[in-house]
Amino acid sequence: MAVYTWEGKTRQGAIKKGVMEATNEAAVMAQLRAQMILPTTVKAKGRGTSFGLGALLKRGVKTRELVIFTRQFATMIDAGLPLVQCLEILAEQQPNPTFKEMLKNVKADVEQGGTFADSLRKHPKAFDELYVNLVAAGEVGGILDTILNRLSIYLEKADALKRKVKGAMVYPITILVVAFGVMTLLLVKVIPVFEKMFKDFGGALPGPTQAVLNLSHFMQDWIIYILLAITAVVVAFLQARKRVPSFRYRTDAIFLKIPVFGPLLKKVAVARFSRTLGTMISSGVPILDALDICARTAGNKVIEAALQKTKAAISEGKTIAEPLSQARVFPGMVVQMVAVGEQTGAMDGMLSKIADFYDDEVDAGVAALTAMMEPAMMVFLGGSIGSILIAMYLPIFKIAEAVK
């Protein structure tokens, strides 16, 4: 996506100017024509200086900032303030310059006659499809304040869920990085000092000590290449997941089958799906549109494929529960509760209960994972470093015995 400045004429001959975020100039022109504006000039904003310091330091929009904006906006709308005035007030008090610029652009688009939802759609980096579709439903139904309150609650819970998963992943990764760093430091800087001392003493070295010295020689000769290889593998893996859908699908399927982590990721996906679908149904978004958005925001290609099949089955006249059960991704309890929600007409309430249940399950899973990983990581870190130190002291013990 890029930012474009544009100028055009309305059918009445009035000159209009603005800023729009789009994939290319043709997309900008198409959106302007849809708004009954004849574009005369469309230029990429900041062309030629996009790699300057300002671009590098430009902040994104954090979830917490979006939650605060949504809550404040809902309060102002509920109090009866005009939409444009709300946007002006919130833009002026926004400390994030990137978000501030977005809100000013949204305000300008609304003043020119665009709908609030269409104005938000031009800034997908801050307002995703879920946000835009719920706002559109709120505008049509005249319940924008209610929709915004639901959105803020949804965003808060989704952000809390994301932070729980990150917290569970950060700890073991941090310990592994620290262990690798400490062992590399020992092998590259400390062990050579011991080796020089052992050469001065003379004599054959114990097997474990010689093995550590050989490993030290290897690390001294190849450490740069090892670090480059690890970096290349990580970058290639991430790029392949980003650019190759089949690779992303296979790796996502593997992630769901990993012991301990797999069940936790599945619970996170179920909680996200239930919360998203329940929020959209209760806000009046059509079920097919809601499932399409749920699929694209699932975060896992296997679950996305299952939801797309569910959407196709519903369009053919089937219930939601039937294709969900055939996908074999969602737990049986979830499928049964969805079936009951369909029969009783309380789908949104049932999905909310499922999401709350799996939020608690994720809490318990993260706590159990952390409790299990802490001693395992400590044993690994202590064992690996301790083994090296013991191997280095074996010749010293042998020399002490010889002296006696």
Model description:
The structure is a single chain. The chain has 404 residues and is mainly alpha-helical. It folds into two domains: 58 residues, Ubiquitin-like (UB roll) (Roll); 246 residues, Up-down Bundle (Receptor-associated Protein), CATH 1.20.81.30. Helices cover 76% and strands 6% of the residues. It has 16 helices and three strands. A three-stranded antiparallel β-sheet has the order 2-1-3. The chain is elongated, with a radius of gyration of 29 Å. The N and C termini lie far apart (76 Å).
Query: What number is the mean pLDDT?
Result: 82
Q: Could you give the count of β-strands?
A: 3
**pLDDT < 50 runs, ≥5 residues:** 47-57
Main pleated-sheet profile: 3 strands, antiparallel
Oligomer: single chain
Structural class by sheet pairing and helices: mainly alpha
Reported by name, the CATH topology of the largest domain is Receptor-associated Protein
Please give the alpha-carbon distance between the first and last residues.
Answer: 76 Å
Tell me, what's the shape? elongated
Strand order, largest beta sheet: 2-1-3
Question: What is the CATH C-level name of the largest domain?
Answer: Mainly Alpha
Q: What's the architecture of the largest domain in CATH terms? A: Up-down Bundle
* Percent in helix: over 70%
Q: Into which percentage range does the β-strand content fall?
A: 5-15%
Number of domains: 2
